[in-house]
């Protein structure tokens, strides 16, 4: 056997014999979030909302948290919310069941620890009802997570004024001009400012939620979930090549 071949084989042994990831303990000993909710509206982007939701679902199952966790799908109306944009003639899309309207939820005084605000093709038409709801429930929240132009809906609630945030990088100048009081950041895969976490475009929701889980439940938990999803995470929040592609500069 050639020496070079032998060295190559020997160097591969640690990888081949490495121990698969084991379920880590949750390192956070403070009160963990229990009540979760997501806003939906006609034309919302399914992946914006349910990438984040699915990782939280997996967290609840893998770590046995589900007995205490509750989830709400919240919208303006009780009818199923469709991904079909109201500005489109399309008939192709999916609908999700709404468990509470904005008015019902506000009147109920139900607890809400984490609210997820997705973007969508009809996000502008969602603002008149979604933004007041976000403003009303924000004092109840431990955390607010936005994905893509969900940050623009949230900005209209006034709670991003003076804060750092990010949004999808295409048409960056036009988007950020809609909320000039926000400190928009690029490059940024996600931004955390206090209890508000904002993600860039749709696929960044996975980076966003894993980073948030690392903050709340511990980095080993976040890393383990990343392995389960077989996802090559962004190493840090500014690992954002799309800012350059779209010429987005803060």
From TrEMBL:
Annotated Pfam families: DJ-1_PfpI
Occurrences of domain DJ-1/PfpI (ranges): 90-210
InterPro entries linked: Class_I_gatase-like, DJ-1/PfpI, INH-QAR
Domain of life: Eukaryota
Keywords, alphabetical: Signal
Signal peptide as annotated in the record: 1-18
KW Signal (keyword) present: yes
Keyword check for Ribosomal protein: no
Name of the protein this chain belongs to: DJ-1/PfpI domain-containing protein
UniProt source species: Pseudopithomyces chartarum
């Amino acid at each position: 056997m050639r020496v070079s071949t032998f060295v190559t084989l020997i160097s591969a042994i640690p990888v081949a014999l490495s121990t698969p990831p084991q379920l880590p303990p949750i390192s956070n000993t403070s009160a963990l979030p229990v009540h979760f909710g997501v806003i939906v509206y006609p034309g919302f982007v399914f992946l914006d909302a349910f990438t984040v939701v699915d990782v939280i679902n997996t967290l609840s199952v893998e770590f046995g948290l589900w007995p205490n966790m509750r989830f709400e799908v919240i919208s303006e109306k009780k009818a199923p919310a469709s991904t079909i944009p109201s500005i489109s003639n399309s008939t192709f899309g999916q609908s999700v069941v709404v468990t509470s309207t904005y008015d019902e939820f506000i009147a109920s005084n139900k607890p809400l620890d984490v609210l997820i605000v997705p973007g969508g093709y009809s996000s502008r038409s969602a603002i008149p009802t979604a933004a007041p709801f976000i403003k009303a429930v924000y004092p109840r929240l431990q955390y607010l997570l936005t994905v893509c132009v969900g940050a623009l809906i949230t900005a209209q609630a006034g709670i991003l004024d003076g804060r750092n945030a990010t949004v999808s990088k295409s048409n960056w100048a036009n988007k950020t001009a809609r909320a000039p009081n926000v400190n928009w950041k690029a490059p940024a895969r996600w931004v955390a400012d206090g209890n508000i976490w904002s993600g860039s475009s749709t696929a960044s929701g996975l980076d966003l939620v894993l980073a948030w889980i690392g903050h709340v439940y511990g980095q080993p938990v976040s890393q383990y979930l990343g392995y389960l999803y077989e996802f090559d995470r962004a190493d840090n929040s500014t690992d954002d090549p799309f800012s350059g592609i779209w010429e987005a500069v803060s």
